[in-house]
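okkk here we go again. third time trying to get the zinc ion bound version out, last two times i messed up the smiles copy paste (missing a bracket lol). double checked this time i swear
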Amino acid sequence: MQNRSAEKTEREAEEKRKGNLFRLLQKTAALLADAVFPPDIYCIACGRPIPAGEVYSLCSECLQVILWANGKLCRICGKPLEDWYPRDICGECANRERSFDRGITCVQYGTAERQILRDFKYRGKSWLARELAEIIYDKISAVGLEFDIIIPVPMYAAKEKERGYNQAALLGMFLGRLSERECRRDCLLRIRDTVPMNKLGARERRKNLDGAFRVTAEGRRIFPGKRILLIDDIYTTGTTAEHCSALMKACGALDVTVATVASGRNQRKLPQVQIGEADQQEREI
Ligand SMILES: [Zn+2]
Ligand SMILES: [Zn+2]
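finally!!
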């Protein structure tokens, strides 16, 4: 009897120690992230100093300028559509089957948005990840999205080494903190280098990514039955999302939502008549 209660006390003490250690690790990770990504004192769009606590670290003027994706959207990929556009589905989604279930995007890719995302992606401003993840988090919360796990679109290892970070993985990491969901980088890999998608037309994009991604053994274990949030910075034709999503679905993923900070514009005419022009416009983005 005594032995059993001693065992129980010992087990409880062990669990408490583990719980404390876990909380300490979480706290340390948060403190480290705060040191690397300091709380913002400048507007993320124009760079002017801002008072502490501004929404998304945007000054009041830039907050007005940002093209929030709040109007008419493609019912599949979430891409903003012009008010005059006669359909509720964008040209790309109308022309092909989608392996992902829905797309959610926060802003349209205009001048200010391009500036922020280029700073984030190419100019070393990795600290923007925190603000951008918050923008995505608010958007997915507003639509009541439920998901089990976060998977960032992977980058080719050598390219990530050169850049110093994968912007999608940083977004995923902060989203993980906000949503209290795991962000896993060990489930889906990019196994070969690819030409940057913005240099290619729609048809070349699809070919460019054939065989570029691979699900790992861990991914095959994790994906079945899961509702996945696939994260990237920009959505254009959806080709990257399509490839990643198809692989995860083939491994048994239940549902895939593609969430991005920004989305390129919709092609400006009806989908059936102008594949060539769409290619041309995507090259401009
Ligand atoms: Zn500003
Ligand atoms: Zn669409």
